Description:
Structural class: alpha/beta
Largest sheet: 8 strands, mixed
Strand content: 15-25%
Distance between the termini: 12 Å
Strand order of the largest sheet: 1-2-4-3-5-6-7-8
Number of helices: 10
Mean pLDDT: 89
Amino acid sequence: MKPMLPAIAALLMAVLPGTSNAQRGAPAHESFVIQSQRLQEARTINVYLPPADAASAHPVLYMPDGGIAEDFPHVAATVDAGIRAGRIAPLLVVGIENTQRRRDMTSPTDVDSDRRIAPVVGGSAAFRAFIAEELVPEIERRYRTTEARGIIGESLAGLFIVETLFEQPQLFDTWIAFSPSLWWNDAALARGAGERLRGMPGLKGRVLLAWGDEDNIGPHAQALSDTLERAALPGLQWQAMPRPDLRHDTIYNALEAMAIERMYPAVPASSGDNR
């Protein structure tokens, strides 16, 4: 599933030292910088590579909130442990470090209180273009990858993931969203999901949607789950996981291992490539 978008005109890449690995708990990884034309700023990218094996190429799991001081260390550590234990198939994890998180993860909104959460909001389309036109081609140039691409995130990152499923479904084939902030813009994504899905009969991929005890997220996530069930698209595999025992600040760490194992299960060597 190679991107069908124009290549970026100019990239500035620089290898960054990984001295903070042990301090932050991240497994060994590589880091580089992209000077993004879409975002008009430099973005730091962290890449976990699976232990050496005989495979010629691997799937890639992208993650917003992917800085060393953000969610990259615990996700990469979970993947690394799962691969070594034979529970997760070898894959790359690509973390995108934030600069203006609330700008990048949100679409434009008609709700005044939404617009007050940050000086700038509504930049999700530009952030998605950065991923599709600049980041994915660079990752595929640098590393041996298959055409399988997934994305994982929580809260506003989960909102971005759900929006991307509807706005650019060909960009990924696997979407993992924990407690997505579907309250954004008066829950427009959840309310409009039925109409959108009716226009996407060929949608293919795998979706895992999980949410905790949040009053402002749970009802919208359940509504989206119900809409997916009614749509019954033959090419879309989806799982809904309401977890009222978990909170907004605990759900990511609690469920990431299970979610990644379900989406990228290890297979016996005799079975061949997992993808």
